[in-house]
Amino acid sequence: MSELLELDREHVWHPYSPMPGTSRPLLVESARGVRLQLAGGTELVDGMSSWWAAIHGYRHPVLDRAVREQVDRMSHVMFGGLTHEPAIRLATRLAGLTSLPHVFLADSGSVSVEVAIKMCLQYWRCTGQPAKRRLLTWRGGYHGDTWHPMSVCDPEGGMHHLWRGVLPEQIHADAPPTEHRGSYVDHLAGLIAEHAAELAAVIVEPVVQGAGGMRFHSPRYLRDLRELCDEHDVLLIFDEIATGFGRTGELFAADHAGVRPDVLCLGKALTGGYLTMAATLCTGRIAAGIPALAHGPTFMGNPLAAAVANASLDVLLDQDWRGEVKRIEAALRTGLEPARGLPGVVDVRVLGAIGVVQLGRQVDLARATEVAVRHGVWLRPFRDLIYTMPPYITGDDDLARITAAVIAAAQEG
């Protein structure tokens, strides 16, 4: 084990970390259900669903079988000029679930946002309005680490301030308040009206802002944005990479408002956390305005990923996923409630299978992780947040263990 970790430190560049690494990662040997088996025998309950993707846990028999059966047929074939059943069935199902008829299968969530932005920019260029080339978003958002997505992340509190002056300069509204406020709608309306001639699209994370701060906002703002975008002929993009497939208590977060965007980005839980795949969906209007979309990833429509995505949808939709998410929500509300009385805690919030404890200071990541591991739980705090987004199969005893670990990390980390 020590030899492997030394090789890891020397050669493996981990996300958001220096090279060589300064912290010692935990070595995972296997995973099953909601548990990670570490080298040396320690078992941890996964409170993060592998960055929110493994909604069915690990080694799910239906998903495992889908991968094995697809490998016996083909693991990959190029998507340019060829097609295959797993991708066709997946695109058809996603179109039916979202009422967005056209589906571009991308490599990852960040790439799906890149494709969404490219769709909107190319649409306006191809329809004779090339001046519409900027994007509007609200502060506190996070949309990925590739180029254009970085430009619509939070410009101050986000991770991409290093690139200021190099990235395209977009238009940032104030962060949305939790409750619906007419004054904030006026703020949005003023910005969209002022910049309508140059705005290609508005892009937001609906209801929950994820890695930018785990903030929740009223679904009514989505209806306001839909009306404002329609009024000023601006396209609307919803980034549901984190919120899609039941995480907020609705299949898609936009369902809380009954709003359909022009472009929708999906990822993370799309394959149940098994393989990297994302999707960018759009209306017929956008597809009709683009002669040929200028994007074509090598692994687009990968059959393995498409097959397991179909299996993940089967597992999700063939069960009472809504009831399971409500059960998790109730357990998180009960389990995290004591955190409200802790010194240094400024907020506790829960929505669906998302539980967040916000501190009035930066979390000591190493210390908070150590405390959670001591309680038998894997968490990955960031900034001033200790949070959990557990798999939907997490049992009540394990949910109690997760919330206890969150509270302990808030106390000691």
Automatic annotation (TrEMBL):
<protein>
    <recommendedName>
        <fullName>Adenosylmethionine-8-amino-7-oxononanoate aminotransferase</fullName>
        <ecNumber>2.6.1.62</ecNumber>
    </recommendedName>
</protein>
<comment type="pathway">
    <text>Cofactor biosynthesis; biotin biosynthesis; 7,8-diaminononanoate from 8-amino-7-oxononanoate (SAM route): step 1/1.</text>
</comment>
<feature type="binding site">
    <location>
        <position position="51"/>
    </location>
    <ligand>
        <name>substrate</name>
    </ligand>
</feature>
<dbReference type="GO" id="GO:0005737">
    <property type="term" value="C:cytoplasm"/>
</dbReference>
<keyword id="KW-0093">Biotin biosynthesis</keyword>
<dbReference type="InterPro" id="IPR005815">
    <property type="entry name" value="BioA"/>
</dbReference>
<feature type="modified residue" description="N6-(pyridoxal phosphate)lysine">
    <location>
        <position position="268"/>
    </location>
</feature>
<comment type="function">
    <text>Catalyzes the transfer of the alpha-amino group from S-adenosyl-L-methionine (SAM) to 7-keto-8-aminopelargonic acid (KAPA) to form 7,8-diaminopelargonic acid (DAPA). It is the only aminotransferase known to utilize SAM as an amino donor.</text>
</comment>
<feature type="binding site">
    <location>
        <position position="296"/>
    </location>
    <ligand>
        <name>substrate</name>
    </ligand>
</feature>
<dbReference type="GO" id="GO:0009102">
    <property type="term" value="P:biotin biosynthetic process"/>
</dbReference>
<dbReference type="InterPro" id="IPR049704">
    <property type="entry name" value="Aminotrans_3_PPA_site"/>
</dbReference>
<feature type="binding site">
    <location>
        <position position="142"/>
    </location>
    <ligand>
        <name>substrate</name>
    </ligand>
</feature>
<comment type="similarity">
    <text>Belongs to the class-III pyridoxal-phosphate-dependent aminotransferase family. BioA subfamily.</text>
</comment>
<keyword id="KW-0949">S-adenosyl-L-methionine</keyword>
<dbReference type="InterPro" id="IPR015424">
    <property type="entry name" value="PyrdxlP-dep_Trfase"/>
</dbReference>
<dbReference type="InterPro" id="IPR005814">
    <property type="entry name" value="Aminotrans_3"/>
</dbReference>
<feature type="binding site">
    <location>
        <begin position="297"/>
        <end position="298"/>
    </location>
    <ligand>
        <name>pyridoxal 5'-phosphate</name>
    </ligand>
</feature>
<feature type="binding site">
    <location>
        <begin position="109"/>
        <end position="110"/>
    </location>
    <ligand>
        <name>pyridoxal 5'-phosphate</name>
    </ligand>
</feature>
<dbReference type="GO" id="GO:0004015">
    <property type="term" value="F:adenosylmethionine-8-amino-7-oxononanoate transaminase activity"/>
</dbReference>
<keyword id="KW-0032">Aminotransferase</keyword>
<feature type="binding site">
    <location>
        <position position="239"/>
    </location>
    <ligand>
        <name>pyridoxal 5'-phosphate</name>
    </ligand>
</feature>
<comment type="subunit">
    <text>Homodimer.</text>
</comment>
<dbReference type="InterPro" id="IPR015421">
    <property type="entry name" value="PyrdxlP-dep_Trfase_major"/>
</dbReference>
<feature type="binding site">
    <location>
        <position position="268"/>
    </location>
    <ligand>
        <name>substrate</name>
    </ligand>
</feature>
<dbReference type="Pfam" id="PF00202">
    <property type="entry name" value="Aminotran_3"/>
</dbReference>
<keyword id="KW-0963">Cytoplasm</keyword>
<dbReference type="InterPro" id="IPR015422">
    <property type="entry name" value="PyrdxlP-dep_Trfase_small"/>
</dbReference>
<dbReference type="GO" id="GO:0030170">
    <property type="term" value="F:pyridoxal phosphate binding"/>
</dbReference>
<keyword id="KW-0663">Pyridoxal phosphate</keyword>
<feature type="binding site">
    <location>
        <position position="380"/>
    </location>
    <ligand>
        <name>substrate</name>
    </ligand>
</feature>
<keyword id="KW-0808">Transferase</keyword>
<feature type="site" description="Participates in the substrate recognition with KAPA and in a stacking interaction with the adenine ring of SAM">
    <location>
        <position position="16"/>
    </location>
</feature>
